[in-house]
Structure formats: C-alpha cells, structure tokens
C-alpha cells in the first residue's frame, strides 16, 4: 500500500550525508527494536557539536545508541521511548531516556492524529524486493503510520535482517527520499534465560488451563515462555497464535507441530504477530516464511480483533499486585522499567473472546538489598503505575496457586491473593487486610 509520495526519486547517499539533513530542534523517529538504524546513528552522533535539542523517538532499543553514548549530559540529543528495553531502562536511570505512555495498539493512531509531522523517519530495512518495497523485517508495529506522518523518509538497508511476510510490512521506493547502505551486523538477539523452578511451577498451573484450539498471546519474559515449553509436554493440539510479540517459545511450538491455527476465525492457519525479538533461530524461522505474518499493532492489539478468535489466551507478567487485584507491571515506584505495552489490550481481548482466558503471572517474592520481599502487597509501592486495574483482572498465578478474580468481592479477592503469597508473608498480609477492613470479621469464604 503506497500512501506517501516522495518529492523526487529515492537517492542513495552516505550516512554522513543523511546525518547532515538533521537540524537543531528536529523530531526524529528511529522505529522499533531490530528496525533501529545503526550507521546513521553513528554518523549523527559525530555531528553532536553542531546540533541542539534533537529529539529522537524509539522503542525497545537493542544496541547502544551512539547519540546517547557520546552525549552523556544530554546537551545535544534527547531520547523518548514507547517501551523500555534493558538499555532504555539504563539510560532512563541516567536521565537520558524518557517514557511516553501508550497502549501499543493505539500507536499508529497517535502518529496519524497527534504526532504529525515528524521531521525525519530513519528505519533499518531489508534490501529492496522485486516489487520495489523495503521490507520492515520482523518489526512492523507502527512504521507505516510514522512514514505517512514524516516530512522525510530514510531507509538504512541491511541484508542481515530476516524478510518477514506480512501486511503493510514495508515502504515502497516511491515513498522513500534517501537510501543509506547499512552494515553487516547480525540482527540483535534477545537472550532467553532458562526458566527457573518458580517459572516452571507457575507455568504448570497456566498450562493446565490451556485447551485444544486455544489462540495464544505470549508476553515477554521467562515465565510466559516456560508455558510454551510445558505445552509441548501437555498433549494440547491445534493451537493458534495472535500475539504482539513473537518469541522463541512460540516458534518451538510451531516446529513441534502443535501450532496449526486450524481453529482460528481470524487468519486461520497463520501465526500473527507485530514484532519479534529472540534468537538467531527465531529470525531464521521468520525469513520468507508465509506461515508467520507480521501485521501493524492496530491489527494485532485492539480487543475487538483479539476477541474474534475463540479461546484466546493472554499470558503476561507483572511485578507487583495488591490485595484488591491491581497489577503494576511497568515501574518500581517512580523508576520506570518497561511500559504498558499490549498487556491491558490483550487482557480485555482475551476476556471478551468466547471461552477466552487472561493470565497475569508472577513469582510470589523477590530479593532487594539482601531482603526477601513479597510481590503481593496490601498497597502498591508509592509511585507504581497500575497497568491492569482490579476490574479487568481475571486469572492470577504464582508458584503457590492460581485464582480467578472475576466476580469476587474485595474480601474474597484479598483472601484468594493472600493464598497465592509466599507462606512467610501470609500472616502479615491477613492482619493488614483485617486492619484495613478489606476482609470483614465473622465472614468465611
């Protein structure tokens, strides 16, 4: 789909010539994950002393950004992220990266309605194909909308990116202003840690709830991916996938023949996703594979889309939950650590799906400053952001159990969540619940 027309035919220029197009005060967009530019970034960093107040939007940065590394005091460049990676989080701790709240599935609308015009969009893409398109690889997200909103479009071509089949997953050469030859760095990988015993214990509880024909959304993290490992042992069949993030765990299920998509209403037979992060094996599975289709997030994430597949199952992490069922999944007090992402949209969509289920999972405890602490608490840490409200919470799982909070009173919720806490903390939590009248005395459940 061609929606933008460049003023002149696309011209190949050097990264230095491309960086010379940037002026002080401009807004740039670097795109998402594996689509973020590298040679342009280094060339722009080399111009730092010529520039002031250049603002750069990005998401899930997978490599160090030269514009930030060479400007530690933020005199020239400012970074704004839609969702933090570990690197973005580190830059936020240094005061160099700033979070922008969003439901990920709404991002294309933000670009079209509220952010236009962007001065320059710079995306890493696959080389031009036989139809004249530069494929976005496995990171479609909102790139089409950003291009439509841009005054200038630059593509940084990299032959090492996997070519991802999908919908609106590329930009036509007629929409491009300049082409920059990229480097031969391999596609950045996201290391998948081995699931811990706690991860596996939680995953066992969730996997037992997944039925034949379920349509999966798997969030980022060891715990949701542990569910994928256990599903290979469970005997479940004819799974489908409609997800935001494509993970190694999903591709492992695909290779094992457990994902057929045969019972999906929307895109039967296809694994639908919006971006992928993982191992080289994941990227190899994506490359030119028509079974795996990469769509923009306003296709994958709206609840009205998710609910079209029966038995939608959403599996996501949180870091803290209070006794009323509020989940804080993106901050530690005022320290931002990730983002809202698609969690709440998939919680809504899975609940609305016929026979759908939403799971929020967490380990019951964590270690901080040498202290053993509970993730299930009376009150959320001051400053913590509520990602999933209590009214939207369905299943909650820890290594100690799984409960469905739908239809439960505040008192019933508190009792149920205390039962999911580590035994070391249950007595204090119950006392706090009584003292704060979450649980009335004399009532048994």
UniProtKB/TrEMBL annotation:
Gene3D superfamilies: 4-hydroxybutyrate coenzyme like domains, Acetyl-CoA hydrolase/transferase C-terminal domain, Glutaconate Coenzyme A-transferase. It comes from the Bacteria. GO terms for biological process: acetate metabolic process. InterPro entries: AcetylCoA_hyd_C (IPR026888), AcetylCoA_hyd_C_sf (IPR038460), ActCoA_hydro (IPR046433), ActCoA_hydro_N (IPR003702), NagB/RpiA_transferase-like (IPR037171). Keywords: Transferase. Belongs to the acetyl-CoA hydrolase/transferase family. This is 4-hydroxybutyrate CoA-transferase. It comes from Paludibaculum fermentans. The lineage of its organism: Bacteria, Pseudomonadati, Acidobacteriota, Terriglobia, Bryobacterales.
């Amino acid at each position: 789909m061609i929606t933008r027309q460049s003023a002149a035919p696309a011209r190949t220029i050097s990264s230095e010539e491309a960086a010379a197009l940037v002026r002080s005060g401009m807004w740039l967009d670097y795109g998402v994950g594996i689509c973020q530019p590298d040679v342009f970034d280094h060339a722009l960093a080399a111009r730092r002393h010529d520039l002031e107040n250049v603002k750069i939007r990005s998401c899930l940065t997978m490599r160090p950004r030269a514009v930030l590394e060479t400007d530690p005091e933020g005199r020239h460049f400012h970074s704004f992220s839609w969702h933090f990676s570990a690197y973005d989080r580190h830059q936020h701790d240094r005061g160099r990266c700033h979070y922008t709240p969003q439901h990920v599935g709404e991002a294309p609308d933000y670009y079209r309605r509220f952010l236009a015009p962007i001065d320059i969009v710079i995306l890493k893409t696959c080389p031009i194909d036989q139809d004249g398109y530069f494929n976005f690889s496995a990171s479609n997200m909102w790139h089409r909308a950003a291009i439509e909103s841009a005054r200038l479009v630059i593509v940084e071509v990299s032959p090492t990116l996997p070519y991802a089949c999908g919908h609106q997953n590329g930009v036509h050469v007629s929409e491009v202003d300049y082409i920059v030859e990229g480097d031969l760095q391999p596609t950045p990988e996201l290391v998948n840690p081995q699931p811990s015993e706690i991860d596996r214990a939680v995953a066992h509880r969730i996997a037992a709830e997944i039925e034949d024909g379920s349509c999966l959304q798997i969030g980022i993290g060891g715990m949701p991916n542990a569910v994928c490992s256990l599903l290979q042992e469970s005997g479940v069949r004819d799974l489908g996938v409609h997800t935001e993030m494509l993970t190694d765990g999903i591709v492992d299920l695909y290779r094992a023949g457990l994902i057929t998509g045969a019972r999906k209403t929307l895109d039967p037979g296809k694994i639908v996703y919006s971006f992928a992060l993982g191992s080289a094996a994941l990227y190899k599975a994506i490359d030119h594979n028509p079974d795996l289709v990469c769509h923009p997030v306003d296709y994958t994430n709206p609840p009205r889309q998710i609910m079209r597949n029966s038995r939608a199952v959403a599996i996501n992490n949180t870091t803290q939950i209070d006794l009323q069922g509020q989940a804080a999944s993106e901050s530690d007090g005022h320290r931002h650590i990730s983002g809202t992402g698609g969690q709440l949209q998939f919680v809504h969509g899975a609940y609305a799906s016929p026979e759908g289920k939403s799971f929020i999972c967490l380990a019951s405890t964590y270690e901080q400053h040498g202290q053993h602490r509970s993730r299930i608490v009376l009150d959320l840490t001051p400053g913590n952001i509520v990602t999933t409200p209590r009214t939207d919470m369905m299943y909650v799982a820890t290594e100690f159990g799984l409960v469905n909070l739908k239809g439960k009173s505040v008192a019933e919720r508190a009792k149920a969540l205390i039962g999911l806490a580590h035994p070391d903390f249950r007595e204090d939590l119950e006392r706090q619940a009584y003292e704060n009248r979450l649980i009335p005395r004399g009532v048994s459940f």
